Amino acid sequence: MSTILNKPYDAFADEEQDVAVETTKKASTGGTAADHRGLPEWWMILLGEEQHIHTLTFAPTVANHIHIRIQQRNGRKTITTLQGVPTEYDPKKLLKAFKKEFACNGSLVDDEEMGQVIQLQGDQRTKIAEILIEEGIDKETIKLHGF
Fold this sequence. Notes:
Layout: E1 3-4, E2 7-8, E3 19-25, H1 41-47, E4 52-58, E5 66-72, E6 78-83, H2 91-102, E7 106-111, E8 115-121, H3 125-134, E9 142-144
Parallel strand pairs: 5-9
Antiparallel strand pairs: 1-2, 3-4, 5-6, 6-8, 7-8
């Protein structure tokens, strides 16, 4: 995960996920939270004040999506990335077919979080989507990202 301006960057921030918030209370040992407003949470714990703990649980997405993104390189140069391809398709064969069809270079990158990612030179997003739809992949599972 990369950071932009010292904040974690989440590549899937634009995806919709259901979030459930669960609130629980710790036992109070006297005093009120209003007496110590503005103090850090760890200080409130030391004072034994009542705490509200929020737990976020993310619901898994229903369908696995294929993500096609474009990334800006230097000047006018761009890279198109393809990830989330179903396991019945061989990424090496897809890469070879894309390189031949689009007359561009490309590579296969192993990522810890994303699995195998196909990278192609240039903006190939619409062409990749058209080929995947012709191969029988549902149009709703293909997500196009970028400018």
